[in-house]
Amino acid sequence: MAPLSQAILVDRRKLLALGIPRATFSATAWIILFWKAAAAGWRSFSVGPCAESAEQPDMPMQEACLRFHTLWNRSLRRLGPREPDLCRGNIAFAAPPRRVVSRPDRLKVLLVSPFLPYPLSHGGAVRIFNLCRVLSRRVDFVLAAFRERDEFVHYDRLREVFGGIYIVDRDERPCGDERLPLQVREYENCGMRALIGELAREWKPDILQIEYTQLARFREAAPDVPAILVEHDLTFPFGQNIHAARL
Fold first, then answer.
1. Contact in structure between 97 and 164 (CB atoms under 8 Å)
2. Beta bridge partners of 94
3. Burial letters for 165-177: b for 16+ Cβ neighbours within 10 Å, e otherwise?
4. Which residue did the predictor score with more confidence, 14 or 237?
């Protein structure tokens, strides 16, 4: 769907291959087409607006019509997204990794961060951005980072350091596994996990570099890639001292 625009750009050949659905509402027909495209493993992209988006109205009639078609059409009901984790939430990008030109003599590093390394608003961002900026003279970096709600992405400054930039919105509820620390549960995100796996397959990095201890579980997303965990702000010795003082 293109709810924020009056235009949709489609590949006519692929559109015809999906078949033109018969529906009362044109929006329902488009939803069915995108549902089929997701099941076929095709990708749909949207271009960000030039201004802040206004709240969009619901489409109860069109969605009810989709429900009717799904219940009535058994073959449509059996479909589902081929890549469900990559199809949920919002993943924005600049310069896909397959277009990042890498020289054979340069190390390829996929860097995963819990926040945007720019602007330089705190020590962690200062450290990540400046170290990668210096190393980018002999290392090719691709960034996969979380974005907070309503946070602006400075793609122009990030492109000075990172050849590819992928931004994942923190829009999932914290994981319900209470065996994990709260900081870890807050960053459990199936979209980021799927993204790291796809980038590892497409770009084939030499190293997966994970910033901060709470993201350590994302190492499982690319088990075949050698990994580095950068542990910022190691506070467990301080915690041990507090525990000893209480005893």
1. yes
2. 165
3. bbbbbbebeebee
4. 14
Instruction: Burial-class residue 241 by CB neighbours within 10 Å (0-12, 13-18, 19+).
Output: exposed
Q: Is the peptide bond before 237 cis (omega within 30 degrees of 0)?
A: no
Q: Which of 85, 97, 243 is nearest to 165 (CA)?
A: 97
As a whole number, mean pLDDT of residues 69-82 equals 89
Q: Which helix (H) or strand (E) holds 130?
A: helix 123-135
Give pLDDT tens digits for 205-246: 999 999 999 999 999 999 999 999 998 876 666 666 665 666
Q: Count other Cβ atoms within 10 Å, centred on residue 181.
A: 10
Mean pLDDT of the chain: 86
| Count of beta carbons in the 10 Å neighbourhood of residue 158 | 21
The pTM of the full predicted model, rounded to 2 decimals, is 0.80
Q: Which two tokens stand for residue 56?
A: 């969009």
User: 91-236 belongs to which CATH class?
Assistant: alpha beta
Joined tokens for residue 212: 């901060």
Q: What's the burial of 137, exposed, middle or buried (CB within 10 Å: 0-12/13-18/19+)?
A: exposed
Model pLDDT, residue 45: 77
Helix 26-39 vs helix 60-72: crossing angle, to nearest 10? 50
Given a contact cutoff of 8 angstroms between Cβ atoms, the answer to whether 167 and 228 are in contact is no
